[in-house]
Protein backbone atom coordinates (compact mmCIF):
# COMPACT_ATOMS: atom_id res chain seq x y z
CA UNK A 1 0.00 0.00 0.00
CA UNK A 2 1.33 3.43 -0.87
CA UNK A 3 2.05 6.04 1.74
CA UNK A 4 0.78 9.57 1.36
CA UNK A 5 2.98 12.28 2.84
CA UNK A 6 1.97 15.94 3.04
CA UNK A 7 4.73 18.56 3.12
CA UNK A 8 3.21 21.25 5.27
CA UNK A 9 4.15 24.46 7.03
CA UNK A 10 1.94 27.50 6.88
CA UNK A 11 5.05 29.65 6.73
CA UNK A 12 6.11 30.42 3.15
CA UNK A 13 9.67 30.10 1.89
CA UNK A 14 10.75 27.27 4.19
CA UNK A 15 11.48 24.80 1.39
CA UNK A 16 8.23 22.84 1.10
CA UNK A 17 8.04 22.91 -2.69
CA UNK A 18 11.78 22.47 -3.18
CA UNK A 19 11.74 19.47 -0.88
CA UNK A 20 8.60 17.99 -2.45
CA UNK A 21 10.07 18.09 -5.96
CA UNK A 22 13.54 16.91 -5.01
CA UNK A 23 12.33 14.22 -2.66
CA UNK A 24 9.97 12.97 -5.37
CA UNK A 25 12.91 12.81 -7.78
CA UNK A 26 15.24 11.12 -5.28
CA UNK A 27 12.67 8.51 -4.26
CA UNK A 28 12.01 7.81 -7.95
CA UNK A 29 15.73 7.39 -8.57
CA UNK A 30 15.78 4.83 -5.79
CA UNK A 31 13.15 2.84 -7.63
CA UNK A 32 9.99 4.06 -5.93
CA UNK A 33 6.89 4.86 -7.97
CA UNK A 34 6.09 8.43 -6.98
CA UNK A 35 3.17 10.80 -7.50
CA UNK A 36 3.61 14.48 -6.63
CA UNK A 37 0.40 16.42 -5.94
CA UNK A 38 0.64 20.20 -6.36
CA UNK A 39 -1.91 21.70 -4.00
CA UNK A 40 -0.46 25.22 -4.00
CA UNK A 41 -2.11 27.87 -6.25
CA UNK A 42 1.41 29.11 -6.99
CA UNK A 43 1.91 25.94 -9.05
CA UNK A 44 5.64 25.91 -8.34
CA UNK A 45 5.85 22.15 -7.83
CA UNK A 46 4.27 21.69 -11.26
CA UNK A 47 6.66 24.19 -12.88
CA UNK A 48 9.65 22.66 -11.09
CA UNK A 49 8.68 19.29 -12.57
CA UNK A 50 8.62 20.62 -16.12
CA UNK A 51 4.90 21.43 -16.43
CA UNK A 52 3.71 24.80 -17.73
CA UNK A 53 1.04 25.76 -15.21
CA UNK A 54 -0.49 28.23 -17.68
CA UNK A 55 -1.17 25.48 -20.22
CA UNK A 56 -3.25 23.15 -18.07
CA UNK A 57 -6.67 22.15 -19.45
CA UNK A 58 -7.52 20.39 -16.21
CA UNK A 59 -5.85 20.55 -12.81
CA UNK A 60 -6.14 19.17 -9.31
CA UNK A 61 -8.93 21.72 -8.77
CA UNK A 62 -11.18 19.78 -11.17
CA UNK A 63 -10.36 16.65 -9.17
CA UNK A 64 -11.27 18.35 -5.87
CA UNK A 65 -14.55 19.56 -7.36
CA UNK A 66 -15.36 16.08 -8.65
CA UNK A 67 -15.30 17.27 -12.25
CA UNK A 68 -12.42 15.02 -13.31
CA UNK A 69 -10.78 11.85 -12.06
CA UNK A 70 -7.23 11.95 -10.76
CA UNK A 71 -6.21 9.41 -13.41
CA UNK A 72 -7.43 11.82 -16.13
CA UNK A 73 -5.45 14.77 -14.78
CA UNK A 74 -2.16 13.15 -13.76
CA UNK A 75 0.73 14.13 -16.03
CA UNK A 76 2.95 11.20 -17.01
CA UNK A 77 5.96 10.87 -19.33
CA UNK A 78 7.46 14.09 -18.05
CA UNK A 79 11.18 14.94 -18.20
CA UNK A 80 11.19 13.93 -14.52
CA UNK A 81 10.92 10.33 -13.32
CA UNK A 82 7.72 10.76 -11.33
CA UNK A 83 4.10 11.61 -12.13
CA UNK A 84 2.44 14.89 -11.19
CA UNK A 85 -1.12 15.85 -10.33
CA UNK A 86 -0.65 19.50 -11.31
CA UNK A 87 -2.09 22.65 -9.82
CA UNK A 88 -2.15 26.35 -10.66
CA UNK A 89 -3.79 29.67 -9.82
CA UNK A 90 -7.24 28.15 -10.40
CA UNK A 91 -6.80 26.59 -6.95
CA UNK A 92 -7.37 29.96 -5.29
CA UNK A 93 -11.06 29.37 -6.05
CA UNK A 94 -11.05 26.04 -4.20
CA UNK A 95 -11.85 27.51 -0.81
CA UNK A 96 -15.03 29.19 -2.06
CA UNK A 97 -16.05 26.51 -4.54
CA UNK A 98 -15.83 23.80 -1.90
CA UNK A 99 -17.79 25.83 0.65
CA UNK A 100 -21.14 24.16 0.26
CA UNK A 101 -20.00 20.83 -1.06
CA UNK A 102 -20.36 17.65 0.95
CA UNK A 103 -17.36 16.06 2.64
CA UNK A 104 -15.25 18.97 1.49
CA UNK A 105 -12.30 17.96 3.69
CA UNK A 106 -11.99 14.52 2.11
CA UNK A 107 -12.17 15.41 -1.58
CA UNK A 108 -8.48 14.75 -2.20
CA UNK A 109 -8.46 11.62 -0.07
CA UNK A 110 -11.33 10.09 -2.06
CA UNK A 111 -9.80 11.09 -5.38
CA UNK A 112 -6.41 9.57 -4.51
CA UNK A 113 -8.02 6.24 -3.64
CA UNK A 114 -8.51 5.71 -7.35
CA UNK A 115 -4.80 5.95 -8.16
CA UNK A 116 -2.76 5.29 -5.02
CA UNK A 117 -2.29 1.59 -5.74
CA UNK A 118 -0.15 2.63 -8.73
CA UNK A 119 2.37 4.36 -6.46
CA UNK A 120 4.67 3.56 -3.55
CA UNK A 121 4.70 7.16 -2.35
CA UNK A 122 2.40 10.13 -2.89
CA UNK A 123 3.87 13.50 -1.86
CA UNK A 124 1.59 16.51 -1.46
CA UNK A 125 3.02 20.03 -1.71
CA UNK A 126 0.80 22.24 0.45
CA UNK A 127 0.10 25.99 0.18
CA UNK A 128 1.60 28.29 2.81
CA UNK A 129 -1.56 28.46 4.90
CA UNK A 130 -3.79 26.26 7.01
CA UNK A 131 -6.76 26.50 4.64
CA UNK A 132 -9.18 23.97 3.14
CA UNK A 133 -6.52 22.78 0.69
CA UNK A 134 -4.16 21.95 3.54
CA UNK A 135 -7.01 20.30 5.43
CA UNK A 136 -7.61 18.14 2.33
CA UNK A 137 -3.92 17.21 2.28
CA UNK A 138 -3.90 16.30 5.98
CA UNK A 139 -7.09 14.30 5.60
CA UNK A 140 -5.59 12.30 2.73
CA UNK A 141 -2.16 11.84 4.33
CA UNK A 142 -0.64 9.07 6.42
CA UNK A 143 2.17 11.35 7.50
CA UNK A 144 3.18 14.99 7.70
CA UNK A 145 6.66 16.15 6.77
CA UNK A 146 7.40 19.61 8.14
CA UNK A 147 10.22 21.54 6.45
CA UNK A 148 11.59 24.47 8.40
CA UNK A 149 14.49 26.85 8.43
CA UNK A 150 16.67 27.09 11.52
CA UNK A 151 16.04 30.76 12.11
CA UNK A 152 14.95 32.68 15.16
CA UNK A 153 11.25 32.39 14.26
CA UNK A 154 11.40 28.74 13.13
CA UNK A 155 9.29 27.46 16.01
CA UNK A 156 6.72 30.21 15.73
CA UNK A 157 3.52 28.87 14.27
CA UNK A 158 4.59 25.27 14.75
CA UNK A 159 2.26 24.76 17.69
CA UNK A 160 -0.67 25.98 15.55
CA UNK A 161 0.37 23.51 12.86
CA UNK A 162 0.70 20.66 15.35
CA UNK A 163 -2.70 21.56 16.86
CA UNK A 164 -4.23 21.38 13.38
CA UNK A 165 -2.62 17.98 12.79
CA UNK A 166 -4.00 16.82 16.15
CA UNK A 167 -7.53 18.07 15.31
CA UNK A 168 -7.57 16.35 11.94
CA UNK A 169 -6.32 13.20 13.64
CA UNK A 170 -9.04 13.28 16.27
CA UNK A 171 -11.90 14.19 13.96
CA UNK A 172 -11.23 12.84 10.49
CA UNK A 173 -8.02 10.88 10.02
CA UNK A 174 -6.94 8.81 13.05
CA UNK A 175 -3.96 7.32 11.17
CA UNK A 176 -2.23 10.69 10.70
CA UNK A 177 1.20 11.16 12.29
CA UNK A 178 4.21 13.44 12.01
CA UNK A 179 6.70 11.67 9.71
CA UNK A 180 9.53 14.08 10.37
CA UNK A 181 10.84 17.58 10.84
CA UNK A 182 13.22 18.59 8.04
CA UNK A 183 15.78 21.33 8.44
CA UNK A 184 16.29 23.16 5.13
CA UNK A 185 18.71 25.86 3.93
CA UNK A 186 20.84 24.65 6.77
CA UNK A 187 24.09 26.27 7.85
CA UNK A 188 25.58 24.49 10.82
CA UNK A 189 28.30 27.09 11.24
CA UNK A 190 26.14 29.71 12.88
CA UNK A 191 25.52 29.73 16.61
CA UNK A 192 21.87 30.59 15.97
CA UNK A 193 21.49 27.32 14.04
CA UNK A 194 23.00 25.39 16.93
CA UNK A 195 20.63 27.07 19.35
CA UNK A 196 17.55 26.39 17.21
CA UNK A 197 18.82 22.81 16.66
CA UNK A 198 18.83 22.26 20.38
CA UNK A 199 15.29 23.64 20.75
CA UNK A 200 14.08 21.40 17.94
CA UNK A 201 15.71 18.32 19.46
CA UNK A 202 14.23 19.09 22.87
CA UNK A 203 10.80 19.68 21.39
CA UNK A 204 10.55 16.99 18.71
CA UNK A 205 13.04 14.36 19.87
CA UNK A 206 12.99 11.47 17.46
CA UNK A 207 10.81 13.24 14.88
CA UNK A 208 13.72 15.57 13.99
CA UNK A 209 15.24 14.03 10.86
CA UNK A 210 19.00 13.44 10.86
CA UNK A 211 19.48 14.62 7.29
CA UNK A 212 19.69 18.38 6.80
CA UNK A 213 19.48 20.18 3.45
CA UNK A 214 22.26 22.75 2.97
CA UNK A 215 21.72 26.10 1.30
CA UNK A 216 22.97 25.43 -2.22
CA UNK A 217 22.73 27.63 -5.31
CA UNK A 218 22.07 24.67 -7.63
CA UNK A 219 18.94 23.86 -5.62
CA UNK A 220 17.67 27.39 -6.21
CA UNK A 221 18.58 27.37 -9.93
CA UNK A 222 17.04 24.01 -10.85
CA UNK A 223 13.35 25.13 -10.97
CA UNK A 224 14.08 27.68 -13.70
CA UNK A 225 15.06 24.68 -15.85
CA UNK A 226 11.91 22.78 -14.89
CA UNK A 227 14.03 20.07 -13.30
CA UNK A 228 14.78 18.71 -9.84
CA UNK A 229 18.33 19.45 -8.68
CA UNK A 230 19.01 15.71 -8.82
CA UNK A 231 18.73 15.96 -12.62
CA UNK A 232 19.94 19.54 -13.12
CA UNK A 233 23.14 19.18 -11.07
CA UNK A 234 23.30 15.64 -9.80
CA UNK A 235 26.67 15.95 -8.09
CA UNK A 236 25.85 19.14 -6.20
CA UNK A 237 25.65 19.19 -2.40
CA UNK A 238 21.92 19.86 -2.61
CA UNK A 239 21.33 16.88 -4.84
CA UNK A 240 23.35 14.61 -2.54
CA UNK A 241 21.46 15.84 0.51
CA UNK A 242 18.08 15.04 -1.03
CA UNK A 243 19.31 11.55 -1.93
CA UNK A 244 20.40 10.98 1.68
CA UNK A 245 17.03 12.32 2.86
CA UNK A 246 15.18 9.90 0.57
CA UNK A 247 17.18 7.01 2.03
CA UNK A 248 16.48 8.13 5.59
CA UNK A 249 12.74 8.32 4.87
CA UNK A 250 12.73 4.94 3.11
CA UNK A 251 14.24 3.38 6.24
CA UNK A 252 12.16 5.33 8.68
CA UNK A 253 8.78 4.92 7.01
CA UNK A 254 9.51 1.63 5.18
CA UNK A 255 8.63 3.19 1.84
P1 LIG B 1 7.97 27.05 0.22
O1 LIG B 1 7.42 26.05 -0.74
O2 LIG B 1 7.97 26.55 1.63
O3 LIG B 1 7.34 28.39 0.10
P2 LIG B 1 10.31 27.00 -1.50
O4 LIG B 1 10.63 25.56 -1.64
O5 LIG B 1 9.56 27.63 -2.61
O6 LIG B 1 9.53 27.25 -0.13
O7 LIG B 1 11.67 27.76 -1.21
C1 LIG B 1 11.71 29.16 -1.03
C2 LIG B 1 12.90 29.74 -1.79
O8 LIG B 1 14.11 29.24 -1.23
C3 LIG B 1 12.92 29.39 -3.25
O9 LIG B 1 13.36 30.50 -3.97
C4 LIG B 1 13.91 28.24 -3.34
O10 LIG B 1 14.56 28.18 -4.59
C5 LIG B 1 14.88 28.59 -2.22
N1 LIG B 1 15.48 27.39 -1.64
C6 LIG B 1 14.83 26.35 -1.06
N2 LIG B 1 15.68 25.43 -0.60
C7 LIG B 1 16.94 25.90 -0.89
C8 LIG B 1 18.27 25.39 -0.66
N3 LIG B 1 18.49 24.23 -0.06
N4 LIG B 1 19.30 26.15 -1.10
C9 LIG B 1 19.09 27.33 -1.72
N5 LIG B 1 17.89 27.85 -1.94
C10 LIG B 1 16.81 27.15 -1.55
MG1 LIG C 1 5.74 26.24 -1.98
TrEMBL record:
InterPro entries: AAA_dom, DNA_Partitioning_ATPase, P-loop_NTPase. To B.subtilis soj. Residues 3-177 form the AAA domain. Pfam families: AAA_31 (PF13614). This is ParA family protein.
Amino acid sequence: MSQIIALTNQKGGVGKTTSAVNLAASLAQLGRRVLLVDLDPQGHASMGSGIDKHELDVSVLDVLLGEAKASEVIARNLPVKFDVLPGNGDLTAAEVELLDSKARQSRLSSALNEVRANYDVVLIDCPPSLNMLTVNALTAADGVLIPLQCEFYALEGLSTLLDTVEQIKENINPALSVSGILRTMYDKRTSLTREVDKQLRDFFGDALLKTTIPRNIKVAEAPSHGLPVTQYARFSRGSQAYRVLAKELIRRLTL
